[in-house]
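Entry 12.
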Amino acid sequence: MPGKRIAVIGAGVSGLGAIKCCLEEGLEPTCFEESSDIGGLWRYEETIEDCRPSIYHSATINTSKEMSCYSDFPFPAAFPNYMHNTKLMDYLRMYTAHFHLRQHIRFLSKVCSVQRCPDFSNSGRWDVVVEVEGKQENHVFDGVMVCTGLYTNPVLPLQSFPGISRFQGQYLHSREYKTPMKFQGKRIVVVGVGNSGLDLAIELSHVAEQVFLSTRRGTWVWNRVWDYGMPIDIALITRFNEALGNLCPNFIINKWAEWRLNKRFSHLNYGLQPKHSFLSHHSAVSDDLPNHIISGRILMKPNIHEFTETSVTFADGTEEAVDVVIFATGYTFSFPFLEQNPCVLDSQHSMFKFVFPPHLEKSTLAFIGILQPDGATIPTSELQSRWVVQVFKGTCWLRQ
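Predicted 3D structure (tokens):
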């Protein structure tokens, strides 16, 4: 008896794991990938494509290889602990070949719409329309796994920056940044202190006349290398620490983490002191930021107050002449192919355990990798996919 047919949308790290989990449980996955290759976010391209995420040439993972692999396919021993994006792509290609996943992927296939079938309340099935070579195809699937990730739809909040319309310099979102070459000798403001903002500020400081790093609320900064040279996630993400964290009140964890991070460098003295506690927001990762601040390559600044034609005024009243502004202001969810119905996905993007829309009559739609875990994405997405395929098969039921 043939297994249930499952649509997997996206062939990045989450989509590849979803395909394999379906195959392991006797389901029949078909993965639709709008671009021409696997990899999603981690496949570097010189040009920016609307259909897929975009990374800069130097992008390196922030989690160690030991903690980032699929459960049954470790990274080669020769690979470094923290890998450049090209190494991660090599790994994904090896994984895809080893488990024969490519035959289940349809490339250059754009998913146009995903809608419930008329008999959804009984069957749980979905009508999926896919565009291939300019022609639309209609398919019916028993379940849908959305694996499109977080980094396709950039947030560029220009309305929050008075005077940006009269600024005569260049401004762009970090998604558009590839290499530092064309910014030689420029005066640059990077807005935002997430991982991308810190990476870009550090890289640009080697070629720019001056880099300013603007932050509205500060951030706590981890480094990849922990005590005795151990990767930080291997040292801290352990069963013992998880059990200890469940026993300790949050204020004790906050105090300890903030003490350890300030022991490396004072966030207050370096202009990074957050307005929030450690556990209340996602932290950033950077090995080199303190060195670049203390050497003057990067100057910390508060939030931007206003733009003029050639300069930026900051909230502390200081004004700096600038040529380029890079907004590392993050991304937002975007699922344009889903039917606009609050039962499918409400305006708050409510999801049970970050995976299942809670209001559907049948739990046959799932989102994989649509979250920012404290650790690595690959094993997190794989665990989500294992759970989802059991729900799709009917061997596992959701409990509120």
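Annotation: The chain has a mean pLDDT of 94. Residues 156-329 form a domain with the FAD/NAD(P)-binding domain fold (CATH 3.50.50.60).
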